[in-house]
Specification:
The protein is built from 27 helices and 22 strands. By secondary structure, it is α+β, with helices and mostly antiparallel strands. β18, α21 and β19 (538-540) form a beta-alpha-beta unit.
């Protein structure tokens, strides 16, 4: 939810109606602004409090007097009001425009009344003023606003992180065949560009010449590098593998797939509804209550004693006491502490909206790659025939793949190392683009690659290998084959590895009644296999980025409160669209920037802890709101003078003291939340 504080922060600059875009830079700027104002006003408040007659009477001391010393309190108070008080009036403009009084309206009313009455008391020599109440109110409100700014600073850096996927320049192939380095903004439709191995595609395009594989995981979520040949499409921001490509540009700038994802993120961010927390609603109610009681107080006292300064004193006391010192800190203190507790448990709360919403979730959607799985290939199983056993076959395959950077090659090599196998030395290594590799081991040439590689060697799968291949293909696993050019020696099945903790996560969440779903850019077979193994009943396969966003929105349209857990660029729109976006900390920067909550330990089981923290946080918020507003139930009637007939009238100073005590109680109650740290 958005508090009365943060949905007005931009009004300080432009008098807007509260619908801000949550720019990370703007939040940081406001945080620094309110921190600076707080410290300046706090220092200026010291002489006001020291020379205040009320404080002197309470503490039993006498401040020194000297020429013009009587002007210290009013002059310093006016300066504090100008520096720290006026911003709240600017921030209240949105509430006035929308006719929805809230925290800013209530604060502004109390500040205005205290300021005007105090000036009048100085000019017309009335009995008492509200200067010390005025400056302490400003100090407390600035502190609360600063704390809240710091705790809810919400970055929109997802867009910047997305743009980083694009290279700054491209290699443009000129008519004479030479290349020229140009800015990507200079590219046009029909241009021919060279994409070297390891380079990012500068624009969407079509391959004219060359074969390679492209890492599209950051865009499509597909964990396996996609083989590319002439006629295939290339997506801007994806990374080229081992071969050089000549690509004809088909989309530039705002037309590219990456730009489309960026638009989705921006739209999802802007579509967040402006919610008001209980504190702001309570402040709105309190505004009307205070005005009503103040009006009735004035009428009753005029009827009782006629027009007198005492009537003005009573009305002013009611309006000043109604201002929420404690209410202004009730939520920010709890949020700051809960964020600290989360951080100590490896849960980073970047957006307190996400924290507050987590307690009401009923559906949790997981991205597959990098979230439920490790996002990297692992050797799942293998098949050998004849005299060659598994270890011998794995040693040969790992030696062949030792010099390759391909994900499948790394998985086979690491699988052999994990078994502690001593690998023979391979010579004359050669990578055959998009197909496989070959090398010589002990004067014998061996090959390893996929089915297409076998067909080029005119090798046929035996019944045993055919059955193995079909079974693994049904599970969505990738199979490669080892041969000596004459016969097939072994087959290796590889797949994205499921995290061990994912099994426990899904079980715990299902036991607690959550509906679990999985989304992935992978094909149906891969999705079905992973979902079946984890016990997930609902899964969506081959989902493009824009459809991930739509899937989340579709679930929300059914009335479900949805959390999205992901780690890739393709998850960014869905993470922002979901009621709660949760990023695995090892994921890409853009996913982390798009999420409201980040799991630093990369452990999806922390989702259970998030819900626990959310519920405890909300409970403390409600308790603090009760404490913060409860004193008004007693103080406002007393300030109005309901017990005046029996000789009990609440002096303004005593009312302010009660108000300060409620602030202390709220602060102590918020600190009790720290006990949850030991329970998580």
């Amino acid at each position: 939810m958005t508090t009365g504080h943060d949905h007005h922060e931009h009004e300080h600059e432009n008098g807007d109606n509260g619908h801000d875009r949550h720019s990370g830079g703007e939040h940081a700027g406001h945080e620094q602004l309110f921190r600076r104002k707080f410290w300046i006003c706090l220092l200026l408040s010291v002489p006001v409090l020291f020379f205040s007659e009320t404080i002197q009477n309470w503490l039993g001391y006498t401040a020194p007097t000297f020429p013009l010393s009587e002007w210290i309190v009013p002059v310093f108070s006016i300066v504090i009001f100008y520096i720290g008080g006026l911003p709240f009036f600017r921030m209240a403009k949105g509430e006035f425009k929308n006719r929805k009084p809230g925290m800013m309206t209530l604060i502004s009313m109390a500040l205005a009344v205290a300021f005007v009455y105090s000036l009048a008391s100085t000019i017309f020599d009335l009995e008492e003023s509200f200067y010390w109440e005025l400056v302490t109110l400003i100090d407390v409100m600035l502190l609360g606003h600063w704390i809240e700014m710091r705790s809810v600073r919400q970055a929109s850096g997802a867009l910047q992180e997305l743009s980083k996927l694009l290279p700054d320049t491209a290699e443009l192939i000129k008519e004479d065949g030479e290349t020229e380095t140009v800015k990507i903004s200079e590219l046009e439709h029909g241009d021919l560009v060279l994409i070297r191995p390891g380079a990012s595609a500068p624009a969407d395009g079509e391959i004219i010449e060359g074969e390679s594989s492209m890492d599209e995981s950051m865009i499509t979520g597909e964990s396996t590098p996609v083989s590319k040949e002439p006629g295939d499409a290339v997506i801007s921001g994806t990374i080229n593998g081992e071969g050089s490509l000549r690509v004809k540009v088909t989309a530039v700038g705002e037309e590219t797939t990456l730009a489309g994802i960026m638009r989705l993120v921006e739209e999802a961010q802007e579509s967040k509804s402006e919610t008001q927390i209980l504190a702001d609603k309570a402040a709105g109610w309190l505004f009307y209550i205070a005005l009503g009681i103040a009006g009735l107080t004035g009428i009753a006292w005029v009827i009782a004693i006629g027009w007198d300064v005492a009537v003005l004193n009573r009305v002013t006391t009611v309006l000043v006491i109604a201002c929420p010192h404690a209410l202004g800190l009730a939520i920010p203190l709890v949020v700051a502490i809960s964020i600290s507790i989360g951080a100590s448990n490896g849960i980073l709360i970047r957006d307190r909206v996400a924290l507050e919403t987590s307690r009401n979730l009923d559906t949790i959607v997981f991205d597959k790659t990098g979230t439920l799985t490790k996002g990297e290939f692992g050797l799942q199983s293998m098949k050998t025939v004849g005299d060659l056993d598994d270890d011998q076959a794995l040693k040969l395959a790992a030696s062949l793949e030792a010099d390759s950077e391909h994900p499948i090659a790394r998985a086979i090599h690491e699988g052999a190392l994990a078994k502690g196998l001593d690998l023979p030395k391979a010579e004359n290594f050669e990578a055959i683009k998009g197909k496989g590799v070959k090398a010589r081991i002990d004067n014998q040439v061996y090959y390893i690659g996929g089915p297409q590689f076998l067909r080029e060697q005119e090798l046929e799968l035996s019944d045993e290998f055919e059955a193995f291949f079909e079974e693994r293909n049904e599970k969505g696993q990738t199979t490669v084959f080892l041969s000596d050019g004459v016969r097939i020696l072994a087959a290796f099945a590889l797949a994205d590895q499921i995290r061990e903790e994912s099994f426990d996560t899904i079980k715990q969440l299902k036991d607690q009644g959550y509906e679990i779903a999985m989304m992935t850019g992978d094909n149906e077979a891969v999705a079905r296999s992973v979902a079946r193994e984890l016990g997930i009943d609902v899964y969506f396969s081959e989902v493009l980025p824009e459809n991930k966003d739509k899937k989340i929105q579709g679930l929300q349209d059914e009335g479900k409160r949805v959390a999205m857990v992901g780690d890739g660029v393709n998850d960014a729109p869905a993470l922002v669209r979901a009621d709660v976006g949760i990023a695995i900390g090892s994921g890409t920067d853009v996913a982390i920037e798009s999420a409201g909550i980040i799991l630093v330990h990369n452990d999806p089981r922390d989702i259970v802890r998030i819900v626990k923290l959310s519920r405890a946080t909300y409970q403390k918020m409600v308790q603090n709101l009760i404490w913060a507003t409860g004193y008004n139930v007693i103080a406002l009637p007393l300030a109005a003078g309901v017990l005046a007939p029996v000789g009990i009238i609440l002096p303004p100073a005593v009312g302010a003291l009660i108000m300060s005590l409620s602030t202390v109680i709220v602060a102590i109650n918020a600190q009790l939340l720290r006990r949850l740290r030991r329970e998580m």
